[in-house]
Amino acid sequence: MRHVELKVTTRSQGDHTIMSVLGEIDLYTAPTLQSRLMSALAPGQVKLIVDMSGVDFCDSTGINILLAAHRQAIERGGELQLASPGSATRKVLQVTGLESVFTVVEEPAPLPGT
Prior knowledge:
CATH architecture: 2-Layer Sandwich
Low-confidence stretches: none
Number of helices: 3
Helix content: 25-40%
Radius of gyration: 13 Å
CATH superfamily: STAS domain
CATH topology: Transcription Regulator spoIIAA
Distance between the termini: 44 Å
Oligomer: single chain
Order of helices and strands: EEHEHEHE
CATH class: Alpha Beta
Strand order of the largest sheet: 1-2-3-4-5
Strand content: 25-35%
Mean pLDDT: 87
Structural class: alpha/beta
Shape: globular
Number of domains: 1
Largest sheet: 5 strands, mixed
């Protein structure tokens, strides 16, 4: 079995939390992402931008975790945006129809005043 590392870092910018994800999101690394997303979506922290620019691969497990986190953010009156997903991730979002569910932005940093 191969070992793939997923690196997840977070930082605050204004009232947003920006989570940068680096590596591959698959069955083996998804629990790490899920844990970090749930922590970031703690009460009062529901404006989350997930910077996907460093993601090389994202399978259905990863998409399902992102979708669950998106639902949780909405339920708490917040939002979850995906920033800079690579072409492979964009393709998965398009094929699954989730491109219309997620807000996809080109830059991970929110605009001033948002």
